[in-house]
Structure formats: C-alpha cells, structure tokens
Amino acid sequence: MFGEKALELIKELQRCLDGSLPPFNEEGVRQVLEEMKALFEQNQGDVSATVAGETGLFAGVQLRHAALERNKRCLLAYLYNRIQQIKKMRWEFGSVLPQDIRYNLSEQEVQWFNRYNKCLANYMRSIGEDGGLDLTQDIKPPKTLYIEVRCTTDHGEFETQDGNVLVLKKNSQHFLLRSECEHLIRQGILEHIVH
Amino acid sequence: MVFVKDLRKEFYEKIQHQRVLVLVSFDVDALCACKILQYLFQCDHVLYTIVPVSGKQELENAYVENSEGIKHVVMIGCGGNIDVVETLQPENGTVFYISDSHRPIDVTNVFNQVQVKLLMNQADDDLHDIPDFDEVFREDESGDEDSGNESDTSEPSGKRRRFDEAALEKRRERRLWEEKKKQILFEYTQFSKYGTSVSKTMFELAWKMSKDTNDLVWLACVGVTDQYAHGKIDREKYIEMVSDLQMHVSRHNHSLLKPLGGNYHLAALDKDKSASDTFLDALDALNRSNVQYMEKGLNLAKKQITAIVKQVQSFLDMNQVISAGPFLYAFIQEGTPDAKFFSKPICLQTLARFTLEAYCAVSKSRKAKTLPLILGAPLDVASGTMLIVGIPPFSSKDVGKNFFGKAFEQAAVGTNARTLQDSFDEPVMQMKTEDKSKFFDALISILQ
Amino acid sequence: MADLTEELEDESSEEGESMTAAEVLQKLEEAWLNEKFSPDLLEIKNDIVDCMLEQIKEMEENIRRAKKGDFRVGIHKMEIDRIRYFISSYLRTRLQKIEKYTAHVLEQEKARGSDETPQMSPDEYTFAKEYSENMENHFKVLALRHMPPNLQALDPKHTVMRPNLDSYVFLRVNEDTAGVLVEEETAEAGEEVIDLEKGDQLIIRYRPVATLVESGAVGLI
C-alpha cells in the first residue's frame, strides 16, 4: 500500500504525545521520499505513454498523485510536530538542551534549534528600553513571593539575586524567591514543596 | 555562659533578616523542631537552607559545602556535644545557634562568648553539672610555658637552667590544675544523656512570638513523646514537658489532638528509622494533613516492630544474650532476615531496649537487672563493619544516662581497634568486625 | 504603594495626557486579557509595556534603598512579580500566536496600508520573519528538495494556519455601542444588529466585535 511508511511516522508522533522526543527517524523519512520518487517516476512513465496514445492510465496517475500529496503532507507534519516539541523544550530547559534529548535530534533539527535560540534571544533582548526581559520566566501567576523547594539532584552552585551563592545538593531544602528558582523547578532540579 | 535567655530577642531577631543555614540531625525530635522553625521562617520570609546530617562527618561536610556567605547557622539536634568551632573551623563572625538535647554540652561551646549561642534553658537540671570556667580554662593557656622550655633545651644551658623556685612552683601548680581539670572533665563527660526536647524549645519560641498554632503544638508533642519512647528521658521529665504542652493544647482546642497523637507518632517515628535517607519524606509525613504518608509510615512501623519482636524472640530462644561480667551482650548474625533494619542506630537502640527488658523478665539471675547491654549488628558486610550500641541497665533510675560513650572511646584508644563514633549519640559506634574481640576484652577490663 | 500612584507622564500617548501608574497597569491588564482571549493577533501595546518595565526598574531601585526588614519590601517585590508576570504573559501569548500563524501575520503586514498601524512591533516583525525563514528552510532541507519537482513548493492553501475568527468569546462592554452588526443577512434570515450597553457581559462570535476590541469599546474576559 502507498503511504504506509508515512503513516508510520505519524503514528510515531502519536506515541510521544507525552512530551518525549524519540530519535529522528531518518530511515523512515528516507523510505517515504523513495516511495515518492518511485510513484513520481511511474506517473511520468504513464504520462509519456498517454501522450504517445495509450489510454486507460489516467486513473492510476490520479491515485498515485493523491498518494504523493499524502506522503508530502505526512512528512511535513512529522517534521512540524517534532519542531513544536523541540520548541517546547527551549522554553523548559533553556538554550542548552540536556545531552540525552540533544542526542535524539537530527543534525538539521539542531541547526533549527540554534537558529530559533538566536532569534528568540534577539527578540527578548529587545523588550523594553534596556536589558530586555526573559520571557521564559514568570510562567505561572505569582501566588507567593517565596517558596520552599527541595533539591532532587546534586546540581552545584546557584547564585541568588541578592548575590548569595547556594550549593544545591541532593536532599537539601531551601526557602527561595519564587521568581529566581522557577526555571530550576521546570527542569526538575528543584521540587516545589506544597504544604 | 552563652545560654540564650530570650529566644526571641537573642536568637530570632538576630537572624531574621539574614540568610540562615539549618543543620538538622536525623531524629524525630529534631525533625519536629525543624518543622516548627521552618514555619516561623516562612511567616517572616527568612531565607534558609536546610541540610539533614546523620553524623559528625556529614555535619562537617554539610557545613563546608553550604557555608559560603553564611553568617548564621542553626543546629538542631546536633552540635551540642562536639566542639563546634574546632570541628567546623568557621570564619570569624559566623555565629552558631545550637538547639540540641544531647548532654553533656561540650565545655568549649558553653564558654565561647562570641560564636556559639546555646538555645537551652540554663535552669534545667541537665545543665547543672557544667564545670566552672576556671576549672577547665586558664587565661594563660596560649602562652604555654612547657612548650617554650622544650624548644630552649638545645641552647647552652648554664645560667638558663638556674634554680628558679617561682617558676617551678608555677609549673607544679599548673600540673595539679591540669590533673584536676582532667578529672573534672572526665566526670562531666562520663555519662551521655538527654535534656529538654528541642521541638519543645522551638515551640516556646513560636509561642513567645504569638505564632503558635495547633500544628506546632502537635509537632512539639511528637518530639517530646519521641524522646520518651526512645528512653531518652524519664517519665517525670516527660510528664513535666507534656503538662506544659497540655496547657497549649487546651488553649488551642479541646480534645482533638490527644487521641490522634499516639498513632501518628508511630508513623513519623518509623519513617526516620527504617531508611535514613528518607529524612525529607519524614518531614512530609509530619504534616498532619498528609494521611497518605502516615499510612505508609504506619505500615513500615508495623513491619519494623514485627522484626524487632522476632529478633528478641530469637535472642532468647537461642540463649544469645550472654553475660560478660560487667555487662550483657548479644550480636545479630550476618544474613539474619531484617538485618537491614538493625543497621540503623535508632532501630538498633530500640531493639536493645526490648531485648534487655525481655531478658530481665525471663532471667532467673537477679543480677540481670543491674547490668547494661551491648548489642551489635552487621553494618556493611562488604567492608566488614558492624554497628554497636550500649544501653544502661534496666533498673537504672537515671533514664537515658549512659556511660558507654566514654567507655567505647577508651576501649578503642586502648586497643587501636578501628572504630568510628560518628553518631551524635555517643553510645553508638561503628567498628571493624575483626577488631571485635580485642575491643570487647578491653571493654570488660575497663568496666570491671 | 506610594510610587505606583505617583503621576507619571505618559509621553507616548496620542493626546499627550498624563496617566497614573495605576492606570497604566490597568491598561496592561486589559491588553493582556484581550490578547489572551482573542483568536487573532491584536495591535501591540508597546508604550504600556515600556512604561511598566520602567516602573519595575524604579520600584527595584526603591527596594534597594529600603532598610533591611522593612515589611513593605515584601509587598513591593510581590507587586513587581505581578507586573512582570502580566508583561511576560502578554508578550508570550503574542509570540505564540506569531509562531502559530507566522505566514498569516506576515501576509497581513505586507497588505497593510501606509496609514494603518501595524499589529506587530518592529522586533516582533523581525522575529516573525526569521522564524518563518527558519521553518521553511527546515522543511526544504529535510524534505521538500528531495521530493519530485512538482511537489517542492509549499502550498499556502494547505500550510498556512489562520486564526478562527468565528470562534466565540466572552466579553464585557466598556462603552455604549449602538448598532453592532452581529450576523450578515442570509437567505434564511435577515441581518442581526444589537446595541451594547456599558457593563453588559455576553458570549459572541469574535469577528463582528474585533474592531471594538481593538478600540477598547469592549474587553474580553
């Protein structure tokens, strides 16, 4: 059946709706493109034959063209949705992706990420008169100024807004300005303790 | 002396606008105290870092790792019985506020006017035996004559070795003083015991600040009850503290708290015991609202008590409690099921108390009741280490008063046994299993 | 909040009138809500954003000067957090729309007459263009250029996402507005016109009231 490989790619997206990102399916993408090439060549052959006077090939050409369109659409959807996922991670993890996630990106996706990083950074720097504004902060409406957090891994040093240096060690517990540790919570380094 | 009289003025208001490091030991009383303090800190936006520490080594590490920029350190359930300034080598200007029920308080902490503040009530019985300053410190101690003379011996003697009566007299007097100091310190440190619950101390602070709530009374109750349940304090002290708290309980509500107390208490207690790294879980478990944790804790507690009962039964059935003369002892064999429970100090201590009580109940020897007990359990088979705890005799009038800390120390020094007294509880020690017999020989001769 | 009620010269407002900081904050909140609930990208309120960022800076300066332990510091910090949240959330919402409807907003900008005010700020426009190029390039390199020649182009009909202006919104009426054409005349029914009275709250299709949202006559909630 035509389009089966493309459907595989879409199913793969479906499986990672939980926010995970599987490795870029280079082989799947290649196979879809190959199928498209084959379909196109068959169509070209049929078209030439028709021009030469053969009849009854039109329906086949139509079908194959529909398959081509569908393959194209699925392939683009695959790429687009992966980009959405990668973009989400830029907002969660910041401009440096964790090694294990980066590993699952194709080279071209890494390039996309770097460019996105750059234009997002440029934009955020331009906000206001000076200094800009980090839009990846202040994600949730503020409820309290300070929150209690627990450190889930050995993270290392962390400088607070007032210039103090804290060492974030596994199982240490801290009372901090909410705004300054929000991104660490999103990265899972700190855990917000709600009483 | 540096006992803080007004907790609010001399402690809380001093740290209120500072970043504070809180070092807290792994026992339920300390945990409760810590939660009370956290509540106060959160009310007043005091920024803090809390690090749990299981022993002296962890305490040192935690301080080194977290002390940057910190000028105010609160120690809960630890620090009292070690020389804090000597151990932690803090920068000048760093102040330690110590709330700890371990006794005796190290004398250097008591007399450090600048860097150590003790959050304890000086009027308490357990603090009456502190030596006088002049008995343990001398103003001229730094300008030590002895060492000066020693370095002089290489010089041509002649007139320098002249008969100098005054100097001789001074040295003699000093030697006497040193001997007396040694004796006084020995007497002072001979027994380890426990003073007022630290969670009760913290609750009093909250009360003075009019920030006491139902939940805080509850925490203080748990802390005090823990001390009693672990045989750290006697019934009188317990009743004294509880009736104090009772006043607050009835002020806050009428009957709700008491019946719940006992059950929930088990939960909190156990979490701490069965896995030391679940300290923070235990903090959560102490929330009265956290029923889920409570249940988990209760189940663990049940398992642990079952393990203890089984172990006691097996000790008695197999006649494994043996008299060494001055004390009784028993060892848990490697490979015993549930041995992992007993590699935790608190749990091993509990087992020791049950074992001794059971042994006294069935023993025909009347002497049994007058003997203390040492209990050993495998700690880490790979590195060949064991954990031992010592508890006072069953008939002892001074509950919690325990001479094993000092005795262990002396036996270890005398035999070069490889030991580690890392716990804040002195009568708890780690030891290389192969050094066991020479260590015990020494211990017997010391205690005879 | 002394420094919030101080009179601030809002130089950039058209009439040159002055607004208090509290009024500017109010405007920011309105802009934020409108942006949050409208399907379309609205006109950027750059002046308000700049003004409030300036305000935050001033408040931070005041805090630095305040004595340690002054209880007002906590309240000020909280207020700063709140304002910063409005600004961030406002700009974030816009950015999300720009990313989603990139081609659409760029098309509109291109079609804009010289006398019309742009929807995007210059920096948002730059972002949109770069984002669009990045996306197209990505498709091209990984897929399109390996496809048969007649399939290598992106067909706008299939790929351009457009906001659904016929989705329904909640709104509150700020100014009396008469004669709003809600439904065009169709074969089955005549046109439907309503009068909006200040304080009314209703659910309605976005398209007919889009211009009223921009003008401030109604606010989305």
Question: How is this fold's topology laid out?
Answer:
The complex is a heterotrimer of chains A (195), B (448) and C (221).
Chain A: H1 4-15, H2 26-51, H3 58-93, H4 99-102, H5 107-126, E1 146-151, E2 156-159, E3 165-168, E4 173-177, H6 178-186, E5 190-192
Antiparallel strand pairs in A: 1-4, 1-5, 2-3
Helix pairs in contact in A: 1-2, 1-3, 2-3, 3-5
Chain B: H1 7-15, E1 20-25, H2 28-43, E2 48-53, H3 56-66, E3 72-76, H4 84-88, E4 95-99, E5 102-103, H5 107-111, E6 116-118, H6 133-136, H7 145-152, H8 165-189, E7 193-194, H9 198-208, H10 214-229, H11 235-252, H12 257-274, H13 279-285, H14 291-317, E8 322-323, E9 328-331, H15 345-362, E10 373-380, E11 385-391, H16 404-415, E12 419-420, E13 428-432, H17 436-447
Parallel strand pairs in B: 1-2, 1-3, 3-4, 4-6, 9-10
Antiparallel strand pairs in B: 5-7, 8-9, 10-11, 11-13, 12-13
Chain C: H1 2-5, E1 7-8, E2 19-20, H2 21-37, H3 46-65, H4 71-100, H5 102-111, H6 122-142, H7 156-159, E3 168-173, E4 177-183, E5 192-196, E6 201-205, H8 206-215, E7 218-220
Antiparallel strand pairs in C: 1-2, 3-6, 3-7, 4-5
Helix pairs in contact in C: 2-3, 2-4, 3-4, 5-6
Query: Structural class from helices and strands of chain C?
Result: alpha+beta
- Give the strand content of chain A: 5-15%
Q: Please tally the helical runs of chain A, counting DSSP H or I stretches of 4 or more residues.
A: 6
Stretches of chain A where pLDDT is under 50 for at least 5 consecutive residues are none
Q: Rg of chain A to the nearest angstrom?
A: 25 Å
State the total count of DSSP E strands of chain C.
Answer: 7
Shape of chain A: elongated
Descriptive tags:
heterotrimer, A: mainly alpha, Ribosomal Protein L9, domain 1, 6 helices, 55% helix, 11% strand, B: 448 residues, alpha/beta, inorganic pyrophosphatase (n-terminal core), Diaminopimelate Epimerase, Chain A, domain 1, 2 domains, six-stranded mixed sheet, five-stranded parallel sheet, 17 helices, globular, coiled coil (chain C)
Concise summary:
Chain C: Residues 1-17 have a biased composition (Acidic residues). The complex is a heterotrimer of chains A (195), B (448) and C (221). Chain B is α/β, with parallel strands linked by helices.
